[in-house]
Write a structure and sequence with these properties.
The chain contains 9 helices and 13 strands. With about 260 residues, the protein is of the alpha+beta class. The protein folds into 2 domains: about 5-165, Sandwich (Jelly Rolls), CATH 2.60.120; about 170-250, Winged helix-like DNA-binding domain superfamily/Winged helix DNA-binding domain (Arc Repressor Mutant, subunit A, Orthogonal Bundle), CATH 1.10.10.10.
Length: about 260
């Protein structure tokens, strides 16, 4: 079962449309729309989508989707940080995307048939996600070129981000590799809001393909920036959002990297 809680409108709630009108004018939801490819949607389309939307609250460590889910979906990140990851047969995980406010999830599920979720989605921090009607979006895309173009732009970004990630992994700096590995380790063992990694400096150096002295310098820089805290009980991720920026510098859009 997904660790989410809807806010506001419920089925059969006659007052729901009034309460949800706040999404159309201002606030975090509107800001997320403006940061995404959905910002180009015609106003009537946006209003219709918002009228039936659900705002989901996801606690840190909670899961939004699980690998293998077969339900089409279209969701917009409103706040927080999400991690999209795949899992190997031996239980190891690999992060393929971090999502920030303005990120869109599920666009590919609108057009892939049959659809099966290729990855799981987990909240790194407390997060809010706006769940839009996938059926309504697919229907309007069939007859409105502007809507179809917005989805094409989103899917094009996903493809280009995938391609950019190949040299990104090969040529990442030690600081970037350290940041990525810390995020992956912390989110794999996450319990609640705290993100803590228990690993020796030498083991961390071995994991990122560097030497201990260089890794110690990278950790010191991250600590001095207030992003992590190091101590005898491990490394605490104080600012996972900023650490994700260190790990995957964003040159466009809102995702790091994409799926």
């Amino acid at each position: 079962m997904d660790d989410t809680r809807p806010i506001g409108r419920s089925e059969g709630d006659a007052a729901g449309a009034t309460r949800w009108s706040r999404f159309a004018g201002s606030g975090p939801v509107e800001a997320a729309f403006e940061r995404s490819h959905l910002s180009s949607l015609p106003e009537p389309v946006r209003e219709n989508l918002l009228a039936t939307a659900n705002l989901l609250q996801l606690p840190a460590g909670g899961r939004l989707h699980r690998e293998g889910d077969a339900v089409a979906h279209l969701q917009l990140m409103v706040s927080g940080l999400l991690r999209v990851y795949v899992t190997a047969l031996d239980g190891r995980t690999l992060t393929v995307r971090y999502c920030r406010p303005g990120s869109i999830l599920g666009a590919v599920s609108l057009f892939s048939s049959p659809f099966s979720m290729p990855a799981s989605v987990q909240a790194v921090t407390d997060a809010e996600v706006l769940s839009l009607s996938a059926a309504a979006m697919r229907e309007v895309a069939d007859r409105d070129v502007a809507v179809a173009r917005a989805l094409i732009d989103e899917l094009s970004d996903r493809v280009m981000s995938f391609i950019a990630e190949i040299p990104g992994n090969a040529f990442a700096t030690v600081r970037q590799r350290v940041a990525r590995h810390l995020l992956d380790l912390a989110t794999t063992t996450q319990r609640g809001a705290e993100l803590r990694v228990t690993i020796s400096q030498q083991a961390l150096a071995d994991s990122v393909g560097s030497v201990r002295e260089v890794v110690v310098r990278a950790l010191r820089e991250l600590r001095d920036a207030g992003i992590v805290e190091t101590g005898s009980e491990g490394i605490v991720l104080l600012d996972p959002v900023q650490l994700s920026t260190e790990a995957y510098p964003v040159t466009r859009g809102t995702d790091v990297p994409s799926h």
